[in-house]
């Protein structure tokens, strides 16, 4: 496996990871049987693709900001921080994925920890996360970051809350 010399950090999207982003997302989309057409557009104009994703934008009807988890030239995953949950809690404050080549190395767990620090900085004391009950890996990521169960949303997804003050900011 590739040894990362710089600890990965959540940061705004950057053109620095162009090749790694495109190949990582392509591997992930193919593996998950998802549409890959969007990658052709992204590859054609990566600068524009990145510019469209930087900063707070209205998405899912709420102010949201996308972050990429990267180490030097390596892109590992994406995470969105919504400043409030979408209507009816159909999605929480946070959404994320780690691309397939980097699975099962603790990256999602660390990525969510860093997101709680960002959320705390935004004045969010409690983060809502929603997850399908059969998504064991994501449930584990949330529970490892202190997620406490609180029923389900109208779509039947599990709701969990993370107290942002309780998650260590170091690391
Ligand atoms: C869920 C996801 C983000 C986990 O990413 P990851 O970087 O592999 O997660 P981590 O390495 O931090 O692992 C977290 C825990 O889940 C476990 N885990 C991860 N993948 C697993 C798998 N396929 N099967 C069983 N356990 C798994 C790990 O062992 C770890 O638990 P442990 O500390 O008790 O050993 C990744 O699988 C993914 O992107 N999935 C698709 C998108 C998605 O589901 N997003 C979340 C929507 S709520």
Automatic annotation (TrEMBL):
Q: Does the record carry Disulfide bond as a key word?
A: no
What UniProt keywords apply to this chain's record, in alphabetical order? Answer: Acyltransferase, Transferase
PANTHER family for this protein: ACETYLTRANSFERASE
UniProt keyword annotation of Acyltransferase present:
yes
Q: What is the lineage of its organism?
A: Bacteria, Bacillati, Actinomycetota, Actinomycetes, Streptosporangiales
The UniProt entry, under InterPro entries, shows: Acyl_CoA_acyltransferase, GNAT_dom
Q: What is its EC number?
A: 2.3.1.-
- Give one Pfam hit by family name: Acetyltransf_3
Q: Can you provide one Gene Ontology molecular function annotated for this UniProt record?
A: acyltransferase activity
Recorded protein name is: GNAT family N-acetyltransferase
Where is each N-acetyltransferase domain found?
17-166
What is the organism field in this record? Nocardiopsis alba
């Amino acid at each position: 496996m590739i040894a990362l010399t710089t600890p990965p950090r959540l940061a705004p999207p950057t053109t620095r990871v162009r090749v790694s982003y495109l190949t990582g997302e392509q591997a992930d989309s193919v593996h998950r049987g998802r549409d890959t057409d969007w990658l052709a557009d992204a590859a054609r104009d990566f600068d524009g693709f990145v510019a469209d994703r930087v900063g707070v934008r209205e998405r899912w009807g709420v102010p949201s900001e996308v972050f990429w988890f990267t180490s030097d030239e390596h892109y590992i995953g994406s995470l969105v921080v919504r400043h409030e949950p979408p209507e009816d809690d159909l999605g929480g404050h946070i959404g994320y994925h780690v691309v397939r080549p980097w699975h099962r190395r603790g990256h999602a767990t660390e990525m969510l920890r860093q997101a709680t620090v960002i959320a705390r900085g935004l004045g969010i004391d409690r983060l809502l996360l929603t997850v399908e009950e059969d998504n064991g890996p994501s449930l584990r990521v949330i529970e490892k970051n202190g997620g406490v169960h609180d029923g389900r949303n109208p779509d039947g997804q599990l709701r969990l809350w993370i107290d942002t003050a309780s998650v260590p900011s170091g690391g």
